[in-house]
Amino acid sequence: MKLGVPSKGRLMEKTFDWFAAHGIRLSRTGSDREYAGAVTGIDGVSLVLLSAGEIPRELAAGRIHLGVTGTDLVQDKLPLWEQQVEPLEEMGFGEADLIVAVPQAWVDVDTLDDLDAAAAAFRATHGHRLRIATKYHRLVREFLRDAGVADYAIVDSQGATEGTVANETAEAIADITSSGETLRANHLKVLSDGLILRSQATLWRSRVADVADEDRAAMAEVLARLG
Ligand SMILES: Nc1ncnc2c1ncn2[C@@H]1O[C@H](COP(=O)(O)OP(=O)(O)OP(=O)(O)O)[C@@H](O)[C@H]1O
Ligand SMILES: O=P(O)(O)OC[C@H]1O[C@H](OP(=O)(O)OP(=O)(O)O)[C@H](O)[C@@H]1O
């Protein structure tokens, strides 16, 4: 049975600690740079080290049976995610809010309604749509559609998203915030009704992965340890 976990960064170590607290020891093997891992304390489980951003796709393709990644990444990357994966446990780390933020200097813009008005005015003045930089395309589009914000364009940003406003590649952003430091440092403010999603690291089960006869015992044992 295959368990996919983040291969590096803030989620990896906490994932290892979380499983250890449940009697399942995960470790990286080989050199520092080799993406190989082992599971001890339980039989029949193999570890697959993956980018947190790819774990939703691997679960949905059935290539891993269980996987750890943020709610934000699952909901953004998988259409109709409930049909493809089941959340088993919220893990209590990797907590972050996906929000919409605008420049602090926009003193008249504090809500989504204000953003909608600003977007219409922006288009009239500049001849192109107000740009919102994000890597969360699906979640942002759905949220803004439901909020009635129409006149904008998404600009893809896969990192350093808060810098896009100063760099003049976007007028607003939608990104994850945790301490709020990055937003403050980049002179941005969250809209008062601009919370899209509260995310945290979660253990997911693939609803589509085949559980072979020889994997059933391992799956049952993992689930029993979590309970
Ligand atoms: N500042 C933060 N504090 C806590 N959790 C965060 C923070 N920023 C992002 N996260 C969460 O961590 C997860 C993404 O982690 P990370 O950025 O390491 O993944 P990634 O972008 O897929 O990495 P990789 O570079 O391996 O592709 C997301 O679920 C996100 O919500
Ligand atoms: O509210 P804060 O505590 O300041 O954290 C938020 C920042 O953390 C994440 O960036 P990350 O460090 O993953 O870098 P990235 O820009 O490459 O995504 C996120 O994209 C924000 O930029």
UniProtKB/TrEMBL annotation:
PANTHER family with a match to the protein in the record: ATP PHOSPHORIBOSYLTRANSFERASE (PTHR21403:SF8), ATP PHOSPHORIBOSYLTRANSFERASE ATP-PRTASE (PTHR21403)
Enzyme Commission no: 2.4.2.17
Enzyme class at the top of the EC tree: transferase
Function: Catalyzes the condensation of ATP and 5-phosphoribose 1-diphosphate to form N'-(5'-phosphoribosyl)-ATP (PR-ATP). Has a crucial role in the pathway because the rate of histidine biosynthesis seems to be controlled primarily by regulation of HisG enzymatic activity.
Reactions catalysed according to its record: 1-(5-phospho-beta-D-ribosyl)-ATP + diphosphate = 5-phospho-alpha-D-ribose 1-diphosphate + ATP
Domain of life of the source: Bacteria
GO biological process, one term: L-histidine biosynthetic process
InterPro entries found in the cross-reference section: ATP_PRibTrfase_cat, ATP_PRibTrfase_HisG
GO molecular function, a single term: ATP phosphoribosyltransferase activity
Keywords carried by this UniProt record: Amino-acid biosynthesis, Glycosyltransferase, Histidine biosynthesis, Transferase
Residue ranges of domain ATP phosphoribosyltransferase catalytic in the record: 52-226
Pathway entry: Amino-acid biosynthesis; L-histidine biosynthesis; L-histidine from 5-phospho-alpha-D-ribose 1-diphosphate: step 1/9
Pfam family, one: HisG
Name of this protein: ATP phosphoribosyltransferase
Gene Ontology cellular-component terms listed: cytoplasm
